[in-house]
Design goal:
With 135 residues, the protein is an alpha+beta fold. The protein has 4 helices and 7 strands.
Length: 135
Amino acid sequence: MRTSARRQSPAPADVITYRLNNRMTYVPPAENFDQAVTFARSAFEGDLAGIDISRISFSLNVLANGKMSSVGVSRGAWSATMSRLARYEIVDVHVQPERKVYRPPPSHRSRSSTKKKKSSSYPSSAGLPTLVETE
């Protein structure tokens, strides 16, 4: 009688490595993307303080077609990806550039030509009216 050996998946990693700016820190694998961002902010407080969470992203280095490539991990793929990581595997943390909002340049018209001057009359210390113009 022949028995077949069933391949078992390796146990989920109990610790992985986050890397940012060539510094590495061990962290527990996050259950979801938001928790991963929280762990990253805690691990790299000085670098990620004040950075909007929408700018933080993650990637893994994988061997594909004989070449190492960086592959981003999306919010939706986070749980499935983490469940297949090996212990101490490196997850790169990235800070995406700020998105610039384009605003048209200010008009080249003179600001003083668009403002109207108001005239007011006040009595002077000598009792004579004094004309004051304001914008």
